[in-house]
Amino acid sequence: MTTPSSWNLLSAHHLLNEILELVERANSYAVMVTAYLDPWQHLELALRKAVERGVTVHIITRSADDTHNDKAKRAKSIERLRALGVTFHEVDWLHTKLYVSEKEAIVASLNLTATGRDGPNLGVHLHGRQAASQALREIDQWIPGFSSTVAAPIAASSATSAPAFCIRCQGARAFFNPGKPYCSDCWHARKSEQGNRTEACCHRCGAAAETVLRQPLCTTCGAKAPMRTAG
């Protein structure tokens, strides 16, 4: 049996979709390093949904300089994404394109711009937490201490009891939200299913219990914490 590779090449046809899906699959953080930025509707939607489910999103982009044709448009794009909850960092003469979550990374030629999307791009998809962590640490050469700051919430959650659990896989969640009691992977799986399947545990305490999307808490936790759905 052939052992699956921990990396694979991404052609221009697949690269953009995999970058967007990296954001959708992120559970803790998503970092997007792009020299130039001109966000489009699908990208903004992916970033907004990530922030809404508790993912910390960072965008690192090139500081405004003479290579930018429309600085006013650039400033408006940044402010629009900041309004969604995205944190921005600027680096002089940045040329790198790198997209990282806690469990995967993509090194690519693609800038997040309309012209960049249509170019003859190529990328390398690195799978696994070790590769992702190593890629994240490369950013420290431009922003000292960046990787430690971004990864700190994950280390803290592994050292203490988690504040919530995915009701399907029972994995630790970074935040308690009874309106969104699934991790990203389980939520995507659920969307392809018919009906309202009974799940495995309580979203609050993680104890085995028959729960569903509309009632994700066990009887004990439900009595302690009134149900409240986040917008």
Fourth-level CATH superfamily of the largest domain: Endonuclease Chain A
N-to-C CA distance: 47 Å
Whole-number total of structural domains: 2
For the largest sheet, list the strands in their spatial order: 1-7-6-5-2-3-4
How much strand content do the residues show?
15-25%
Helix-strand makeup class: alpha+beta
Q: What coarse outline follows from CA principal-axis ratios? A: elongated
Query: Can you give the helix content as a percent range?
Result: 25-40%
Q: Roughly how many Å is the radius of gyration?
A: 19 Å
**CATH architecture verdict of the largest domain:** 2-Layer Sandwich
The parts where pLDDT drops under 50 for at least 5 residues are 156-161, 226-231
Remind me, CATH topology of the largest domain?
Endonuclease, Chain A
Mean pLDDT score: 86
Can you describe this structure?
By secondary structure, this protein is α+β, with helices and mostly antiparallel strands. The protein has 2 domains: 7-157, Endonuclease, Chain A (2-Layer Sandwich), CATH 3.30.870.10; 164-224, no CATH class. It is 35% helix and 21% strand. The protein contains 8 helices and 11 strands. The chain has helices at residues 12-25, 41-52, 71-84, 114-117, 129-137, 146-159, 184-191, 219-224, and strands at residues 7-11, 29-34, 56-62, 87-91, 98-101, 104-108, 122-127, 164-165, 172-173, 199-201, 208-211. A 7-stranded mixed beta sheet has the order 1-7-6-5-2-3-4, sandwiched between helices. Strands 8-9 form a two-stranded antiparallel ribbon. Strands 10-11 form a two-stranded antiparallel sheet. Helix 1 (12-25) packs parallel to helix 2. The longest helix has 14 residues, at 12-25. The chain is elongated and about 60 Å long. The protein starts with 6 loop residues before the first strand and ends in a 7-residue tail after the last helix. Residues 156-161 and 226-231 have low confidence and may be disordered.
